[in-house]
Write a structure and sequence with these properties.
The structure holds two protein chains of two kinds. In chain A, a hairpin with a 6-residue loop joins strand 8 and strand 9. By secondary structure, chain A is α+β, with helices and mostly antiparallel strands. Chain A is globular and about 55 Å long. In chain A, 27% of the residues lie in helices and 15% in strands. Chain A has one domain. Chain A has a two-stranded antiparallel sheet. Chain B is an alpha+beta fold. Chain B is built from 24 helices and 17 strands. Chain B has a six-stranded mixed β-sheet. A four-stranded mixed β-sheet of chain B has the order 8-7-12-9. The radius of gyration of chain B is 22 Å and the shape is globular. Chain B starts with 11 loop residues before the first strand and ends in a 7-residue tail after the last helix. In chain B, 63% of the residues are buried. Classes of the chains: A alpha+beta, B alpha+beta. At the A-B interface, helix 1, helix 4, strand 4 and helix 8 of A face helix 4, helix 7, helix 11 and strand 13 of B.
Chain lengths: 239, 607
């Protein structure tokens, strides 16, 4: 996880290098070019526990843009696990309709694909923005964290559908939260599939990792537009 | 609306009449789904229904343009990413017919994400008819259907339009496809593109789209059909995902597909004398290494990208890094683009080749036919059948990349010589005269792909028996053709089918639809589709005599490489054809499906 020391390599050598350490180096350039996204030194840190008795361990999905091909298998895997369906009276995994996926791939031209999912932000601007008063017993707003995973959840009963959380996520981070088109209540917060993320498991390219553990560190998340711009510049030399 | 019993389908087709701007949801019956599956098959069935009489002008409002996903589309099945575009061809013509506008069926397949999204929007296919009074695009957002003004986009290249279109739509979750200036200008071999790189290139489908003044289609959806055996489907899918990789034992293994895509075949085909080189005269290309996947990997490629849920990622993205075209961003050569725009024109400069491929895509032309047309003109110029004046002053010598770029522009804009060249090699040979018809490389008016058939009668059979005119994605045998026709109807990619194992496709289809798809049933559906296409063509006036190749492959032996000296024998091809028609149950003399054969397939009232 330690950033590699810069080496004198040409672009093409870097881009096509099969050596994992060089690939890691390339990733670090991505980070370097504007503090972009989710990489090494920012990855691992601890999220403050949301309740006194439970200790939340930082964990999240990390994307390797060099490996992602934009195939969207992750979307179907996420949807299948998190959006269960009833068929013949039985509760089963869904058929993978990407509409309900918590991870979404945004395609760009020139060819760049940006998978976006909840960053599990330390400071959670979404929760910060929630105007619902904390419950006196739990201390939770409508949007809250609980349990050992740092996933953001919504209490749909107390949620007033104001959209502040989605707006905060969109303007301050990556826009992972999407309001329900009818109720305007927040959806698509990554669940980490209870600790066994299906997107990571089923990605045919090994482009997604599940990172658990941590030290302290400040978190950065860029919108898909900015991420795509930085990658297009890095890969194709385009501004 | 939707038929609950029709598992695996929405039971709904979206019909849009561009003349009136009105759209309607039309039910898809279980019988049609069962008999024609989806994709190419269902598209052909609808085409035959819409065009009840022969001789309809392909560019008239009457000719429907169909965008057909299949029953696999919209499910997370590996590489179920395809959209089959079906229409009556503006490219083909028979040797003789009483119908001046006679032509074959046309179908062209593209990967990407468009087909699955059509299904997410709630449709088993889109049927476009009529002609808009001014340039339009079609907007589909689940139930919201609008025909919108596209005047400001008319004339725009596909690369820029790809960007501008999505900006106009305001959400990157829309999937789009569109034409470039070539389609707008009715170049007969115009393509339909998506993601500025993938194309339904063949058969002039972009020309038909242009004739309807339809610049593009945008679709976004939130739905999915249900399947008959939900649990069983997920179990089979899981099993196929686990063994997918092992299925690739043929020419290229799984890792090879991922690393090189189809570009691996450039060197392979050249080494076997099977490559289109110098207008199909050589078979092998001495500079092939310079344009191969290995060269592109070292010099241009940056990343791999994949179609919906595909583990193969056969597409590569890259940029030219030096020389005259430094900074140009595009995917590197694939087999067909590298062959037709590269070796067939003797272009070995990778940067110039990428520029040519980029321009052909940007104008919205078919790479295969464009390379073929330019190869023909180069040969005619070399043989002094035409002079520089004929070519508007272009010095069209072999390997002259600048001349190629200029000609591509002229073709797309139908400027000067480009007007004639926009009609394809058959029309060009008619004008050039002399012995030029002998090296106008087409069958039924549709140009051959980058596989040279000099050395193999099977490839010749593949080309001449294809129902859309020359087509390399066909098989030389009736059984193989039936299998391909059925597979083209599922919405799955032909390159990926190895991964499904022997019966994986049929097992999935059975779980999805709830009807037992035996091998016999599956091949029978394919046979029905192929016979329908052939009967359609026969009605237009195509006969056995049209199932042929130009003299190039019979009279001009390959000049270089391992295939040096190879020629096809006319009598051998005729013998093969007779056997083939017999095997098909068609009339040996006319090549026409017999009434008895059509009846046995339940086609007697359709065609």
């Amino acid at each position: 996880m330690k950033p590699q020391a810069p080496e004198k390599l040409t672009f093409k050598e870097l881009a096509r290098s099969k050596d994992p350490s060089r690939r890691a180096f390339l990733r670090d350039i991505v980070v370097g070019s504007g503090g972009l996204l989710l990489f090494n030194r920012f990855l691992v840190r601890q999220v403050h526990a949301q309740t006194k008795e439970e200790k939340t361990v930082f964990s999240m999905i990390v994307v390797d843009f060099n490996k992602c091909t934009g195939c969207r298998t992750c979307e179907t895997a996420c949807s299948s696990y998190n959006r269960r369906e009833t068929a013949n009276g039985r509760d089963l995994s869904g058929l993978g309709n990407p509409t309900y996926s918590n991870i979404r791939v945004y395609p760009y031209n020139p060819d760049v694909d940006i998978p976006i999912t909840c960053l599990m932000c330390d400071d959670a601007p979404c929760i910060e923005a929630c105007p619902v008063d904390p419950d006196p017993k739990t201390g939770w707003k409508a949007l809250f964290r609980s349990g050992t995973l740092p996933v953001v959840q919504n209490d749909t009963v107390r949620c007033i559908g104001c959209g502040s959380c989605a707006e905060a996520c969109r303007t301050k981070r990556v826009g992972a939260i999407i309001p329900n088109p009818e109720t305007n209540k927040p959806e698509r917060m990554c669940t980490l599939c209870g600790g066994d993320p299906q997107c990571v498991k089923l990605c045919p390219y090994g482009a997604l990792s599940y990172v658990v553990e941590g030290t302290n560190g400040k978190h950065y998340g860029f919108s898909p537009d900015l991420a795509a711009k930085a990658l297009a510049k890095l890969w194709y030399g385009q501004d | 609306m939707a038929n609950d019993r029709l598992y695996g389908y929405h039971g709904v087709l979206l019909e849009v009449d561009l003349t009136s701007g009105k759209s309607a949801k039309v039910p898809l019956g279980p019988d049609d789904a069962r008999r024609f599956i989806g994709g190419r098959g269902l598209g052909m069935k609808i085409l035959a229904e819409k065009l009840k009489k022969p001789g309809v002008d392909a560019l008239s409002p009457e000719n429907p343009l169909l965008f057909m996903p299949g029953p696999f589309s919209g499910f997370p099945i590996p590489s179920a990413s395809r959209t089959c575009v079906v229409t009556k061809s503006p490219r083909t013509s028979p040797l003789k017919s009483k119908h001046p506008k006679a032509s074959t069926v046309s179908y062209s397949n593209m990967g990407g994400f468009f087909g699955p999204e059509v299904r997410f929007a709630g449709y088993d296919g889109i049927v476009v008819t009529g002609r808009a009074p001014k340039p339009v695009y079609l907007y589909i957002d689940d139930d919201k259907i609008e025909v919108r003004d596209a005047s400001k986009f008319w004339g725009m290249g596909t690369d820029e339009f790809d960007r501008r279109f999505i900006e106009e739509l305001g959400d990157r979750r829309f999937r789009t496809c569109y034409i470039g200036p070539a389609g707008e200008n009715l170049v007969s071999y115009a393509a339909i593109l998506n993601t500025a790189a993938r194309a339904a290139g063949r058969g002039g489908v972009g020309c038909v789209m242009g004739s309807k003044k339809l610049k593009g289609i945008a679709v976004r959806g939130s739905r999915q059909p249900s399947v008959a055996d939900h649990e069983g489907f997920l179990a089979v899918l899981d099993a196929i995902r686990k063994t997918f990789k092992d299925g690739f034992s043929g020419g290229l293994n799984y890792d090879g597909w991922r690393r090189y895509g189809t570009s691996w075949a450039l060197i392979d085909a050249s080494e076997n004398g099977l490559m289109a080189v110098k207008n199909y005269s050589q078979g092998s290309f001495e500079d092939v290494a310079k344009i191969s996947g290995i060269a592109a990997e070292q010099k241009a490629w940056v990343r791999d990208f994949a179609c919906f849920c595909c583990p193969l990622s056969c597409k590569k993205a890259g940029a030219v890094r030096g020389g005259k075209y430094a900074g140009l961003v595009h995917d590197g050569p694939e087999y067909e683009t590298g062959g037709m725009m590269g070796s067939n024109l003797m272009i070995s400069d990778l940067g110039a080749l990428m520029k040519a491929i980029y321009d052909v895509d940007d104008y919205g032309l078919d790479q295969i036919s464009t390379g073929n047309v330019i190869g023909f003109l180069m040969e005619a110029y070399e043989k002094k059948l035409i002079d520089r004046t004929f070519l508007d002053g272009i010095d069209l010598t072999w390997g002259n990349a600048d001349a190629v770029l200029e000609l591509v522009r002229k073709i797309a804009l139908r400027d000067g010589i480009g007007d004639l060249a926009s009609q394809g090699v058959k029309a060009l040979a008619g004008r050039v005269g002399g012995n030029s018809a002998g090296f106008a490389v087409h069958s039924k008016g549709h140009e051959l792909a980058a596989w040279d058939p000099h050395r193999t009668i099977d490839l010749a059979m593949t080309y001449v028996t294809a129902t859309r005119g020359a087509c390399h994605l066909n098989s030389p045998t009736a059984r193989g053709q039936n299998d391909y026709a059925a597979m083209d109807s599922l919405g799955v990619c032909m390159f990926a089918t190895d991964g499904f194992g022997k019966d994986g496709l049929r097992r999935l289809l059975t779980k999805i639809t709830g009807t037992d798809w035996t091998e016999e049933e599956f091949l029978k559906a394919g046979e029905r589709i192929f016979n329908l296409e052939r009967a359609f063509n026969a009605r237009e006036g195509f006969t056995r005599a049209d199932d042929t190749l130009p003299a190039r492959f019979f009279d001009d032996p390959l000049t270089t490489g391992p295939g040096k000296g190879a020629v096809l024998k006319r009598d051998e091809l005729e013998k093969k054809l007779t056997e083939y028609y017999r095997d098909r149950g068609w009339d040996e003399k006319t090549g026409r499906p017999t009434p008895a054969k059509l009846k046995s397939l339940g086609l007697e009232t359709l065609i």
